[in-house]
Each structure stands twice: as C-alpha cells, then as structure tokens.
Amino acid sequence: MDDLALERYFDDSIANDPSYMVEEELDLQSSLKQSHESRTNSRNSSNLLGETETSGRLGNDLDLSFLPDDLGNQSSSSTVPATAATHQNAELDVLEDRGINLDNLHGMAVVKRQVTVNLGSERNASPFCPMTPMTPMTPMTPVTEKSGIIPQLQNIVSTVNLGCPLDLKFIALQARNAEYNPKRFAAVIMRIREPRTTALIFSSGKMVCTGAKSEEQSRLAARKYARVVQKLGFPARFLDFKIQNMVASCDVCFPIRLEGLVLTHQQFSSYEPELFPGLIYRMVKPRIVLLIFVSGKVVLTGAKERAEIYEAFENIYPILKGFRKQ
Amino acid sequence: MFAAGLKCPGCGSSNIVDDDLYCQAQLVCVDCGSVVSEGTLADDPVGGTDVSYSRTTAVTKKPCLNLIKGLERVKEMCRILRLNSEIEDLALTYFRQAYQQESFINVTLQRKEVLAGCCVYVSCRQRDWPITLGTISSLLDADPTLVGGVYQEMIKILNIQAPFVSITDVIEAHVQEYKISAQHVTEELAEDSKVLTKRAVALVELAGDSWIVTGRRPLPIMMAATYLAWQSLNPNKHRLKLSLDKFCHLAKVQKRKPAVMRITELKEVLCKLGRELPWVRETVTQDNVVRLVGDILEHRHTLLTRALRTHETAMQADCPQASALNSPTEEVTPSQRSESRDQTADASSALQLCPTDRTENQEGDDSHQTEDPEPNWGVRVLFAPPCVVHAKRRRVEPPPVQNVTGDEEISDSEIDSYIRTPQEARAFALMQKAVSSSGSGNS
Predict the structure, then answer these.
(1) Residue B131 sits in a domain of what CATH number?
(2) Which residues of B are less than 8 Å from A192 in CB distance?
C-alpha cells in the first residue's frame, strides 16, 4: 500500500476514531463489522485488519502526556460506547432473528438507519483510552442488561437414605400423619405441617421428600421425617441427602408469540397447541426444561442447583423480549 | 424328561416321565408304571395344529399380520385425505420403523391403529401439508388425548421433528368441510366457498394478531371464524338469527363447545376496531358489529393503528402523574435501553402490542402502591391474551418461614405430635380390623 496514504490514514484515525484501539482489544470482529457499517468507503477486511494492527503499534509510541490524570472515568465511559455498539449489534441480530413477516417493512428500514447512525455518532464521541497495562478496566456489564426478574422456587424434590429396612405397616399404625395403601402404592405417604411437605417412605429405608420451597427447608423437612421414624423405634440415620429436582416460576409481564418462537428455535422448542397450551423449551446449557406460556409466565424445571435456574432464565429472557413485538 | 408337579395316582411318586408311544403323548410313572395321563389321537385339533410345519421351520421371518394391516390402514388414510405419493411413502417408512420399537410392538390393536394415524400426521407436517391432529382423531375415531400421547411418544422414539403448522394454512382446508354452498342449502343461506375462505382467513389473521389464537386449540377458532365470516358476508336477518348450533347442523359439521367463547372474543376485538371507523355514528356493540365486519377487515391495519393511538391517549389522560413519578424512580439502567425502545416503538407503530413505556411505568407504580401482589398488566393494554385479562385469583399462601438453615434443632414436642399414643394406636388397629372384616363380610 502507498506510504503516503497509510500515513494519512493514521493521522485520520488518531484524530477522529481513537476507540479503534479499544475495539481491537475487546472484540476485533465486532469492530470490523461496525467500521464496515459506519464507514461508507469500501475497504476490504484484510486491509482494515492490517491498518488497525499497525495503528495500534504506532499508538504505543505516541506521546500520551495530553491524557487526563484521572483514568477511572475514562475506562468506564469508554466501555459505554463499546457496550452501546455491541448492544446495537445484538439489537440488529434480534431484529434479523424475527423471521416473521413484518407488515411495516418501512419501519424496519427506519430502525436500521437509525441504529447505524447511532453507531457512527457514538464512535466519534468516544474518549481516548490507552491500552497501558496499568489501567484498571472495570468489568464490563454483560452485553444484554439483566432482566431484573428473579424466578421463585415453587417445589424441591430430594431423596435421603435412612439406612435401615422399615416396617411400613407398623409406621402406618403408629404415626398420625401417615397413610399406607399397599394395593395402590408400595410406600407410606407421610406429611408434616412445618415446612409443609410430603414424604414417600419405602420399606428399603429410602425416602423422597417433596413440596419444600427452598433447599434448606427440604433438608429440614427430611430431617424431621427421619426423626419421626427414629422415634418410632427404627435405627434411622440421615445418609446421602440429595436434591433431585427444583421447580421455579416467574412472570415476564408481556405476552409472547409462541408461534414465532417455535419457528426460530425449532431445535429446542416443541409447541403443539392442540395438546398443550404452552411451549416446551429444552435448553441445552444449562440442561433445564422451560414451559413458556402466552401470558408471559415461565416455569423452569429440571435443575439440581439454584444457579442453573437463574442462568436458564437469564438465557431465555432476551429471546423472549425479542418476541415481545411481533 | 421329568414332568414337574405331577403325582402318580397309583403310588404317589412324583417320578413321572414323558413317554411318547407311537407319536401318542403319554405321562408314565417310573416307579409303578401306571399311565398318569395320555393324549388321545382324537384330541388333535381339527385341521392340524395351530402352528403349521412350514411356520416352525421357516428360515426368513415373515412380516407379522398386524404390520401388514397397519400399512394397509396408512394407505387407506392417505387415500381418504387425498395425499400425494410422497407423503404416503414417508408415512409407510415411519410406520415400519416405529412398529419395530418395543413400545409399539406389544400394544393393543387400537394403539397400533392410532400409530398409523400419527405416522400420516407427521408426514403431512413434514411435507408442508396443513392438517390438524383433530382431523386425524376423527378419522381414527379415537380419543384426541390418546392420539396426542401416541404422537408424542412416536416423535421421541423416532427422533424426528415436525415443523409447526400455522392456523392460517389449515383454515382453507377446514372451510372446505362446510357444506354451505348453493347446492346444499337455500339461496339466502348459501355462500361460495372461495369467498367464505377468503374472509375466514382474514378473520383468523386478525385473531392471531390480537392474541386469541396463541396457546389455544385451532379447531374452535376456525369454526368461530367461519361462522362469523358466513354471517357477515350477507348479514340478513336469517343468517344473524341462526345460532352456532344450527349453523353446524346446517353445514353438517360437528360443533365444538369452545367455539362459542371464541366467537365472543372475536366479536370483542371487532368491536374495538369497529369503534375507530369514522363513518359509524352509533355505538358498536356485539349485536351490530357483524354488519361492519367487511369494512373492518378491509381497513384493519389502519384501524389497529388508530385504536392503539386512542388507547394510548386514553391511558395518558388517566394517569399523567404516574408517569412523572416513575421516571426518576425507574431502576432500569442505562439510557441506551429506553433509547433503543423508543426507536423500535416509533418504527413499528402499525402493530399492536402494549405501549411499552406506559405499561412498565404503571407496573412499577402498582408494585409500590397497591396491596395487590400481582399487577395485572392485561387490563391496561388494548389487546392481551384472554388468560391474562381474566386472570384467575390465586390463593395467596402465607409467606414461608424465612432464613431456614436446614440444620436447626427439631423440638421433641413437634415430633411427638406426629406419633399416636398407645391408646390411639390400639383403637385404630381395632377399627381397621372391624372395617376389614365388615368389608369382607359384605363382599
């Protein structure tokens, strides 16, 4: 490439778009995309790559004395345009994702133009941020903002081994809160009032505890059942307590186009309105099943840990927001 | 060979052997020699044994009869539905595959027949032929729940995916079922099938846009759309007087109960749009909206925009303070979020959903002010899914004990409250005995 042209380009970039360096460190791919959109002159990607790299190298040799002493604001404010830029990208992706026919194509075009204009303006306004290793970069907020909704746990299923064989007939006779119908089911069904739970106690000594609203409550309830069995005269212990399943629910407070969701996420969703009014979404990571309803209510199940539920909801929330407007 | 469990009547020994004399089966006691039992030649089944020689010595396995019958049933159904050969072949392949699986090989004949129907259904969906599970159920004359269950299992076992079939595709096939053309009914009640289809499609699209379709069974909605389309194409007093019951009887279609509710919901949506018609003087109610359906459908996009705008201004007039209160307290972070929302809000003005800023402000408002724990955003919006508008009142459970660690002390008294006293246990045992003895005495 022509040396003069290269120099001219460097002068240009340093004067106007110093945030190129920021982009380079954060996400080279997205910077290429953005620069493609904001710059009207056509440069091929390999050219651009070469230029950004050399400009970075040159930047290290530059005189940085004109920088303000306080770099704390700089790092945080520099993340804002980056966030905005990548957010706008996500916005575009979401817009493209909606494969449903939009009646208002004009509106779509308007949105695209506005988004690209914003990209351009924000890049010009971004302050300069050096890539010195001393500069502490504040951790960037995730690309999409948090939903602000916390799923509430509704049911916890846990199992525990009492470690000794049990005489179910005796238990059913001696305990007030037990029912036992061997013809129907081969276990004693016992209930306690606080925490309000139900337990299935088998003759092998294994027990299933359901109905608690938190992990700690489930554990407390299981211990109470074990104590009851102990008081009845069996050498019960409390071995291998494990949470097997957690169910949670929440409300996103906007209606959801299930038909659209099943079209774009076909490999994960199953929506059969003739059989069940909700859409069954099987998330791969984390391995959670979500039931999504048109009213905006979401049920999450299949988790072994609370964090899986929160993660699954944070994953699904941006997808659902995309189907908020048709 | 020792025949187990038999005792010789002569000496009582269990030493009995199978002794075939001249191809006649005999059981003989070894110790005393008496014949315990023998099969007479006259006992052989007429026409040879059930299992023929050729079958027991066959080298290759012939396809079982039920498989052949099932394949024939698949072909028959494809012929009734007038499906092309591609779909038929696909259905036959699926049936052969599914039949071998263990969850379908040893089941009732009815289940196998339902499996045949499900194979046809899946093939139709995969080849873009719009059909509902309801149609298959009526063809098989089986319970739709059973058909649904078999369908789900088959999908899981064969590991296939069926693309979603939208209601606007199915409605055209659905309207063909109605025998309402000039050759079947009188002049005043007759309607050309093409015209009827066109209007029914428009009504279904409108229903889809206003949240009536999502999550609901498609058949009652299609029935409601067809009924309203038929009524509105020629709203004379004969048609308006005819109830859904009589209409279905006339068109020789089986009426669906939920269709009545869908008609009400659809009319409500039409009323909301009808109010925006500038040339209508009188108030638009459920009774007189049918006459305006044609105009409403023709201009439905403009009417939707107008209705949304009217609703927005009405909401603004209602609570101007609420919005002022909430702008500072809005905890939603950066300006980018509202910025991008404004952009999209301006851009997609034609379509329906709730004005987002408005509802979010009001949501925040509700959670601060009222005791009602669940702000019902459905009542504040122009179009919302009916399950939100008529939300069920949930029994509010007392808040659970907070800060449970799981390792607390468990009081003895609490545990004792769950155990019977000895007297109680005795009384209970007596009562159980009494109940069981009386029960066995009666039975």
Answers:
(1) 1.10.472.10
(2) 418
pTM, 2 dp: 0.66
B165 to A17, A274, B286: CA distances (angstroms): 50, 11, 31
Kindly state whether residue B327 falls inside one of the protein's structural domains: no
* Residue recorded with tokens 């999502």: B214
Beta bridge partners of A179: A189
Alpha-carbon Rg for chain B, nearest whole angstrom, is 35
Contact A279, A288 (CB under 8 A): no
Question: Alpha helices, DSSP H only, in chain A?
Answer: 3-16, 20-26, 28-38, 45-61, 72-97, 105-125, 168-174, 215-231, 258-264, 306-322
Closest residue of chain B to A220, computed from CA coordinates: B406
Question: B414 vs A231: CB contact, 8 Å cut-off?
Answer: no
Are residue B75 and residue B161 in the same domain, yes or no?
A: yes
Does B176 lie in the same domain as B260?
A: yes
Nearest Cβ partner for B418 among A175, A278, A296? A175
Question: Residues B335-388: pLDDT tens digits?
Answer: 444 443 444 333 333 334 443 333 333 333 333 333 344 557 777 788 888 888
Min Cα–Cα distance to chain A from B332, Å: 8
Number of domains chain B is built from? 3
Task: Name the residue range of residue B5's domain.
Answer: 1-44
Q: Give the one of A103, A220, A263 whose C-beta lies nearest to B164's C-beta.
A: A263
How many Å apart are CA A178 and CA B427, to the nearest integer? 16
Helix pair angle (A28-38, A105-125), 10° resolution: 110
Residues 15-34 of A with CB under 8 A from B: none
